[in-house]
């Protein structure tokens, strides 16, 4: 099979299919002894991170906590790698590898698989998304790489990562923002909802500065952006977060639906009654999406 054909087909397999081979290899090893793809111990120094890893920001406190756990119990879940020259390249598990280095381990357990570039990027992307480890900009950049380097469509990409097509499209639009605003999203000063509200503003940097300085919520940012578009100055900023104007119109409901859709990657519909009660409907297209929602609602790690 050619590399191009393998790259095209790899996206549709999904994380469970790609990693299912690893689980089978581990079972075979337990029953029959060492086998190809079995868990093995290799030197930490023989492993290198993948340069295309979608995740760029690693929380220092969480990394130190993991390093302390690894120092006490070792690396419980093997790192997935692929051959790279005379050594190995990480496919999934860079955070564990970094923590193992901090714990001063000399060897770590790995499973070696022959993944293509497209499969490697897909696995790294899905692993981080399902664990909610990527910020919006990192996720958007990973999607863009899959589109640019491997020729995938937005629709095929959305199916592969179990997200709605609108979620993928909305994330990709964030890459049109100035680099300074993207950096604020990465740092956590602005959320994806803030960034989407700022998109299309005549002076996005000025609006972003105002949002950060005044601590505006996403709904307040959307109202401010709309006011500026209508010709207002934006000087009369909405009330600070935590204060209500006691009105809830369709614009607010639409904004909340968009926020929830961005968070879950699913289409969300809110039926609101003036007396305060209502219902929320989530539309899913695959059982994997339903399973993801159930796990998130139950607090179970994916």
UniProtKB/TrEMBL annotation:
Family annotation (CDD domains): SPO0J_N (cd16393)
UniProt keyword list: Chromosome partition, DNA-binding
SUPFAM superfamilies, per the entry: ParB/Sulfiredoxin
InterPro entries registered for this protein in UniProt: Chromosome_partition/occlusion (IPR050336), HTH_ParB/Spo0J (IPR041468), ParB/RepB/Spo0J (IPR004437), ParB/Sulfiredoxin_sf (IPR036086), ParB_dimer_C (IPR057240), ParB_N (IPR003115)
Superkingdom assignment: Bacteria
Annotated region (Disordered), positions in chain: 229-248
GO molecular function (one): DNA binding
Residues in coiled coil: none
Family annotation (Gene3D superfamilies): 1.10.10.2830, 3.90.1530.30
An example Gene Ontology biological process: chromosome segregation
Domain ParB-like N-terminal: residue ranges: 40-129
GO annotations of cellular component type: chromosome
Role description: Involved in chromosome partition. Localize to both poles of the predivisional cell following completion of DNA replication. Binds to the DNA origin of replication.
Similarity comment: family membership: Belongs to the ParB family.
Protein name: Chromosome partitioning protein ParB
């Amino acid at each position: 099979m050619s590399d191009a054909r393998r790259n095209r087909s790899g996206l549709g397999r999904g994380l469970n299919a790609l990693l299912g081979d690893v689980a089978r290899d581990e079972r075979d090893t337990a029953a029959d002894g060492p086998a190809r793809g079995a868990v093995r111990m290799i030197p930490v120094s023989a492993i290198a991170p993948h340069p295309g890893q979608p995740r760029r920001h690693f929380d220092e406190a969480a990394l130190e906590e993991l390093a302390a756990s690894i120092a006490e119990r070792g690396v419980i879940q093997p790192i997935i790698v692929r051959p790279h020259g005379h050594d190995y390249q990480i496919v999934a598990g860079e955070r564990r590898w970094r923590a193992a280095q901090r714990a001063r381990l000399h060897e770590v357990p790995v499973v070696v698989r022959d993944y293509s570039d497209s499969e490697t990027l897909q696995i790294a992307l899905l692993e981080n998304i399902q664990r909610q480890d990527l910020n919006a900009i990192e996720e958007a950049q990973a999607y863009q790489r899959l589109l640019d380097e491997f020729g995938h469509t937005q629709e095929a990409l959305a199916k592969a990562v179990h997200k709605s097509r609108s979620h993928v499209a909305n994330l990709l639009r964030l890459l049109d923002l100035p680099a300074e605003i993207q950096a604020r999203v990465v740092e956590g000063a602005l959320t994806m909802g803030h960034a989407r509200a700022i998109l299309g503003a005549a002076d996005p940097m000025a609006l972003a500065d105002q949002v950060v300085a005044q601590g505006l919520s996403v709904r307040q940012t959307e109202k401010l952006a709309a006011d500026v578009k209508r010709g207002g100055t934006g000087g009369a900023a909405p009330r600070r977060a935590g204060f209500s104007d006691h009105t809830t119109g369709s614009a607010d409901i639409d904004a909340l639906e968009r926020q929830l859709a961005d968070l879950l990657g699913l289409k969300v519909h809110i039926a609101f009654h003036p007396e305060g009660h209502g219902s929320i409907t989530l539309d899913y297209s695959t059982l994997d999406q339903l399973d993801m929602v159930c796990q998130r609602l139950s607090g179970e790690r994916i």
